[in-house]
Amino acid sequence: MIIQDTMPATVLAVGRLMAGTAGESRRSAHLFDLHSGGSHPEFLHARCGAAMPYDHLEWIPVGAGMPCERCLGLAGSADQTRLPRPSRGV
């Protein structure tokens, strides 16, 4: 039995562009925070900030595909802000 009140507000999902919609170098696996609800936007934004058309995404299991390095760096928390590293001049 599923109790609707226990559903999390956001779910972390891994997705990438489908084959044929982009070159292989652009098909890295991104992290998406999906919000519960019946509808979906035209574009989804990955944690790294990349905007991808919802209709061109394929959902893959965790650990599959070449990971997006930016998304991995921001994997710790959805609320984590990426700050420059002054010691490295970035």
What can you tell me about this protein's structure?
The protein has about 90 residues and is mainly beta. The chain has one domain (about 10-75). The chain is about 5% helix and about 25% strand. It contains 1 helix and 5 strands; from the N terminus they run βββββα. The chain has one helix at about 70-75, and strands spanning about 10-15, 30-35, 45, 50-55, 55-60. The strands form 2 sheets. The protein has a 3-stranded antiparallel β-sheet, with no helix packed on it. The protein starts with 9 loop residues before the first strand and ends in a 17-residue tail after the last helix.
Q: Summary?
A:
The protein has 90 residues and is mostly beta strands. Helix content is 6%, strand content 26%.
